[in-house]
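--- STAGE predict ---
source: upstream dedup step, 1 unique chain passed
mode: sequence only
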Amino acid sequence: MLSPFTVAVVAALLLASGADALAMEVAKPSPGLMPNPTVGKTLYEKNCASCHASDLTGNDKGPPFIHRVYEPPHHGDIAFQLAAINGVRAHYWPFDDMKPGPTVTPDDVAHITAYIRMHQRKAGIH
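--- STAGE serialize ---
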């Protein structure tokens, strides 16, 4: 279930983006999927580590996921789904825009998100 904050952020983004909102897809994982951080680790390494570092601390191509900016109250799990399917304009960090990840499915992103969240919890980011 999405937090009220996440719903509000998504609604604000949709309203603020005007015509772009009409083209924005919101992907959802398969009903009943149990996201698995172990599966997510392999998917993360294949699809995300080159820009966000294998240890999730970021590099010269992309920002760190082990950072309060990406904690669940600020960037809910749906933010990862939106980023994967639609890409992201650079806004917090001095990097290029993120392109959509055409090779990942919503289920893949759910597993990757579970992996990221596990490491965030270990780092004290909830």
